[in-house]
Design brief:
Order of helices and strands: HHHHHHHHHH
Distance between the termini: 98 Å
Number of strands: 0
Low-confidence stretches: none
Structural class: mainly alpha
Number of domains: 2
Helix content: 55-70%
Mean pLDDT: 83
Largest sheet: none
Number of helices: 10
Strand content: under 5%
Shape: elongated
Length: 232
């Protein structure tokens, strides 16, 4: 392990013993954000990302290895499909389904769980005793497994390609919406400018009328007509 040795370390520790928190500051950490780190575990290059994905998939696939049955039931029984069984074969089925059906989180997290669960279910379906348990107690037959792995299953190249195409289409739709909104804004701006010109033109015409000789000469008549209108 290179980038995820600490995660693997804690997973293996938690299978053997509990963790206790000492509520006291016992260390001092200096973090210089102004310098680039030479630590490969925080490198953002492609090789590091691929290595991180591989190591995470390996840890997830072996997440339950070496875990005592009592600890497994204590930690995960609330998520069991058949919580009344505690024999090793039923627990093996529960472990497979926890990986295959339960993962949540971002795309990479679900993908790695699904693949690990699919591998475990393949092994269980290939053994007569566990295949019968899956059929009898979990109502899960090979046809159901094929339906999952033949659908838009996380982790397959087809699924990854579909997800990429979906995101590309979503980006294209957003860009088109942005361009449409820009065009609408331009039209609205042009209409607004035209309206401003009309208002300015009407204002100039009104000022010209008010400054004309005929307007000034007819002022008394307008005054009388306004008084008559108000009385009427």
């Amino acid at each position: 392990m290179i980038p995820l040795h600490d995660f693997d370390f804690w997973v293996r520790i938690l299978k053997k013993t509990g963790v206790y928190i000492i509520d006291q500051p016992l260390t001092v950490v200096h973090w210089d954000s102004g310098k680039e780190s030479d630590n490969v575990s925080v490198s953002s290059d492609i090789a590091s990302e691929l290595r991180h994905s591989y190591e995470l998939s390996y840890i997830r696939a072996h997440y339950f290895d070496g875990m005592e049955d009592g600890l497994f039931r204590e930690a995960f029984q609330k998520e069991f499909i058949c919580p009344d069984f505690s024999d090793p074969e039923h627990l093996a089925c529960e472990k497979a389904f926890l990986l295959f059906l339960k993962p949540e989180g971002d795309f990479d997290y679900r993908r790695l769980h699904h693949l690990a669960g699919a591998h475990r279910l393949t092994e269980l379906l290939n053994h007569e005793s566990t295949r019968k348990i899956l059929e009898r107690d979990y109502n899960f037959i090979p046809k159901d497994f094929y339906a999952y792995t033949g659908s838009d299953f996380y982790g397959t190249p087809v699924s990854s390609e579909k997800e990429l195409k979906r995101l590309q289409q979503a980006l294209s739709d957003v860009q088109q919406q942005y361009e449409d909104m820009q065009q609408q804004y331009k039209v609205s701006e042009q209409n607004c400018q035209a309206l401003i010109l009309e208002v300015q033109n009407a204002k100039r015409q009104l000022e010209a009328i008010q400054q004309s000789t005929s307007w000034k000469m007819t002022k008394p008549i307008r005054f009388v007509m306004d008084r008559l209108h108000k009385k009427g």
